[in-house]
Amino acid sequence: SHFILQQKVVLVDPSEDPDDVLRANRSREKTFVFDMVFDHRATQEEVYVSTTKSLIGGVISGYNATIFAYGPTGTGKTYTMLGTDREPGIYIRTLDDLFKALEANAEEMDYTVSMSYLEIYNEVIRDLLNPSSGFLDLREDSRGSIQIAGITEASTTNAQEIMQLLTKGNKQRTQEPTAANKTSSRSHAVLQVTVTQKSRRKAIGREMRIGKLFMVDLAGSERAAQTQNRGKRMKEGAHINRSLLALGNCINALSEKGGSRAQFVNFRDSKLTRLLKDSLGGNSRTVMIAHISPASTSFEESRMTLIYAYRAKNIKTQV
């Protein structure tokens, strides 16, 4: 079990025997400190306001931003990101506020917003808005930014339409029952929003700003033992873990960048890290929302999740 103070999570080992004299001084109680910690009473709005709302101004100014939902299956990642019609999650709330802010500035700037929604499953990319298009390729353009060949780009500023698009897209995600969860998402879902603005003033060399926003609902981070996976599921888990490991390695290398040796950051290890290269290391602000379960059976998972998230906290990028 764990209990939560405003910025602290205290994880208590459920298997401990309080009367064990030998271990009295060596309790496996671990404290992790984060920028924000929410318990089960937190609303979608509170989580959004504390984690994501402040990134919107940056995207409009031409910076990139990335929001990750991380954690084991069944801890609420998809709920946080997509939510329900009555309790929409970060996707919709962010886009709502983004459109409002762009609208308020519309006299000065012409803007376009395009969105794509994709999944990375077993190291292949599928378009969730048009699943029949098969597997898509990552390509690097002349400026070195990563493009996905043939992805559907939707441009709408109507929140209802977007919610329908995303809910429909989310149903296309590769889901399989595992011992951990009946509808476990076995893929990483990435909502990519590109905001392009041009100044309306007829000056020479009108400025153009491009900001990218990635919102990523990662696949469950649990270990194979927890899902009792065999065969195909086991392979799939290896791919999920491979991309999460690659992401973890990039995070480690980035968080050690200030250290004595210049770290090489290997973004090429997985499709996920290649796609997010600019948003992780470059001109970007990044938020990770780590999810843990209060169940005592999830102690190990919670511990691993907290360690991973704690590392991510040490990344310093020069925006």
Structural account:
The protein is of the alpha+beta class. The chain has one domain: Kinesin motor domain (Kinesin), CATH 3.40.850. 31% of the residues lie in helices and 26% in strands. The chain contains 10 helices and 14 strands. The chain has helices at residues 44-51, 56-60, 77-81, 90-104, 159-171, 224-227, 231-255, 271-275, 277-281, 299-312; strands at 2-5, 8-11, 30-33, 64-70, 109-121, 124-127, 135-136, 138-140, 146-148, 175-178, 181-185, 188-199, 208-217, 284-290. The strands form 4 sheets. It has a 7-stranded mixed sheet, sandwiched between helices. Strands 1-2-3 form a 3-stranded antiparallel sheet, with helices on one face. A hairpin with an 8-residue loop joins strand 12 (188-199) and strand 13 (208-217). 36% of the residues are buried. The mean pLDDT is 82. Pfam families: Kinesin.
What shape does the CA trace take? globular
Q: Indicate the proportion of strand residues.
A: 25-35%
* Count of β-strands: 14
Q: Which class in CATH terms?
A: Alpha Beta
Terminus-to-terminus distance: 38 Å
Using only C-alpha atoms, the radius of gyration works out to 20 Å
Low-confidence stretches: none
Main sheet: which strands, in order across?
A: 7-6-5-12-13-4-14
The chain-level structural class is alpha+beta
Whole-number total of structural domains = 1
**Tally of contiguous helical segments:** 10
CATH topology: Kinesin
**Mean pLDDT, rounded to whole units?**
82
Helix content: 25-40%
Name the CATH superfamily classification. Kinesin motor domain
Proper CATH architecture: 3-Layer(aba) Sandwich
Largest sheet: 7 strands, mixed
What string, H for helix and E for strand, traces the elements in order? EEEHHEHHEEEEEHEEEEHHHHEH
